[in-house]
Amino acid sequence: GTTLGASAAEKGRYFGTAVAANRLSDSAYTTILNREFNQVTPENEMKIDATEPQQNQFSYGAADRIVSHARANGMQVRGHTLAWHAQQPPWMQSMSGTALRNAMTNHITQVATHFRGQVAWWDVVNEAFADGSSGARRDSNLQRTGNDWIEVAFRAADAADPNAQLCYNDYNIDNWNDAKTQAVYRMVQDFKQRGVPIDCVGLQSHFTGGSNYPSNYRTTLSSFAALGVDVHITELDIRNAPADAYRNVTNDCLAVARCKGITVWGIRDSDSWRSGESPLLFTGSGQKKPAYDAVLAALNSG
Ligand code: G3I
């Protein structure tokens, strides 16, 4: 193939990007988006603060614009994200206990129902584990409603959209030896054993380059996959975009049958949440970087 999406498709995978609704009017942006990518993840537009700014008042305009652009251009959509400690609207931030639990499940039910049939994968729960050596859950208002909040979220999403693939998504779960990776692994193993509906794990993969790209990343991907879930690289970006690291990540995904695809967290460096680090595949003026060539070559090799 001559583009990321077409080349990934030849390997039975997708190649996607985060998309911001307010950039869809930038033709330099949409030219690259439509040419290169066959999957999109709304960068902010499906988060709780965006979709339910006031309790029980849902707002889907920006997310719907991305979904309709995706559908018109044959791109699959990853929904991001139904339950998260961050980017909660003020009304939810101030809630706790049963009221918050009920608000969470209502939010999931309403949003997953609205997008039923249009979202291939949902990040049902995002970033629920703590960093560091504890292997514990992250403290949050959602966690304080009870340790079962994650499985309750997955069951609510499954009931609302039985055909969507339901993912747990997190960062710093790339190194197989990290306590956080092991803790997420044990949760997924437990969910599979008890029949909690989980289909996939998303590894965000925000790398800082060099030693931050773990040499055992492929082991992590294949270990999660061996639990009977798909794995997705959901928010890839790498400080200074070294071609080697991008090539290695691509090859690691291709080496694991259940690694379904790669999503980069933005198109041009100027679109990135860490734009000062130039971590993406295209320059601010839309030129392909060496990392782009490395990824494309990896997708087309073998
Ligand atoms: O839209 C408002 C704008 O109206 C306002 O003037 C401006 C002033 O700060 O803020 C704008 O909103 C910002 C929004 O991005 C859109 O640009 C928010 O402040 C800013 O917090 C928000 O940042 C997003 C961040 O998540 C928030 O948690 C980033 O774009 C987004 O890339 C980032 O994505 C996360 C994933 O969801 C989860 N994994 C980590 C990843 C990177 O942090």
From TrEMBL:
EC assignment: 3.2.1.8
GO BP: xylan catabolic process
Key words, A-Z: Carbohydrate metabolism, Glycosidase, Hydrolase, Polysaccharide degradation, Signal, Xylan degradation
Record has Signal as a keyword: yes
Enzyme class: hydrolase
GO function term, MF aspect, one: endo-1,4-beta-xylanase activity
Active-site residues, Swiss-Prot/TrEMBL: 235 (nucleophile)
Domain GH10 span(s) in chain numbering: 1-298
KW Hydrolase (keyword) present: yes
Protein name as catalogued: Beta-xylanase
Species annotation: Catenuloplanes atrovinosus
